Amino acid sequence: MxxxxxxxxxxxxxxxxxxxxxxxxRAAGYLLSTxxxxxTAGLPLVLLSLPLxxxxxxxxxSSERAFLVVLSGLLVAGLGPMATIPLARLExxxxxxxxxxxxxxxHRRPPGRGVVxxxxxxYTESVTWRxxxxxxxxxxxxxxxxxxxxxxxxxQLCAIAAxxxxxxxxxxxxxxxxxxxxxxxxxxxxxAALVLLPAVPYLLALTAGAQAAxxxxxxxxxxxxxxxxxxxxxxxxxxxxxxxxxxxxRRIERDLHDGAQQRLLSLTMKLGxxxxxxxxxxxxxxxxxxxxxxxxxxxxxxxxxxxxxxxRVLTDRGLAAALGELADxxxxxxxxxxxxxxxxxxxxxxxxxxxxxxxxTNAAKHSGADRAGVAAHWDDGVLTLEIVDGGAxxxxxxxxxxxxxxxxxxxxxxxxxxxxSPAGGPTCVRVxxxxxxxxxxxx
Length: 443
Hints:
This is histidine kinase. By secondary structure, the protein is of the alpha+beta class.
């Protein structure tokens, strides 16, 4: 927006009243504070580069020069980040003098505590080497750039003061390539320097803005790194959600099995005993018999509910056994072929099981098939599950067959769902789940 404050001196230079703002002073402060930063960073980098001095000696052999150059490079690359990483943190804070935009660090949090995880993380990050390159570039160019800038400013001040100095007879004076001996000869140069005096803040802002742009480009997290960090955080959040879902599922299963189911079983037994004690054919006996029958039906439905949340056989014996039990309980004639040398993680097992259960339920309800086949195998880090039925085909996620929800559940753990269902059949549902088999099969 035009009325928004400019975030950098480069943006502020194009607006009216620039000389009356704080930007010239901020730019001057940024340039002056660069000197101690360069000295702090340059000293260790120069010390690490000392072998190069011996390499340029006239009596050094070619092999010695090559060795010294490689040694110097290894020293700078190996120990240089130890000096530039903390200085880069200071430099990002100092950047706020001339850049009002937020500047985040591109460093990641180490996966563990200690020196080794920290070093492994820092030395594998691109921002670490950009920081080192930034200070190497700063140490090489700042002395030259600031010497030219200081010379220009000193020359301008000398030109302004030249008529007064020459009035005292302290001449001649050298103003760059020109020598003046009298106040009258120095006056045109003084007037020109005065006219150019308002350009000094612009020169400072231009220099500070260019240096700040370089710092921002090299010291902050790049767009690709930001995207990668966001994707990593999304993956971590998704993993936390999966873990939380599994923990909540186990809690519900435990509460139903150990709480409600046990109380309902006790109620069914008490109703059965009460039915025995009542006179046969009495109204009370009939009511208790109906209540006993309803309790037994509710007990059966609760068992089915507990089994649907997470079958016990899946926890105890793994996916292959659970698929076999699922086939036995299906209204279709289901054949199972499962060749798994080990057990995948629990959340992968659970997703694979419910994918098979949902696909068989869809086949029984919508396809008109009387038989189906389930195959599961693991190869090259991917658990593949295929459910094929000989029904009429034409499965469409848009018709509420449950395939959309199943695809979403599979995608939560980085898997994918493939469906082939031409008109006339057959329908093939293929689920691919990346995982490692890190748990041995139980006997």
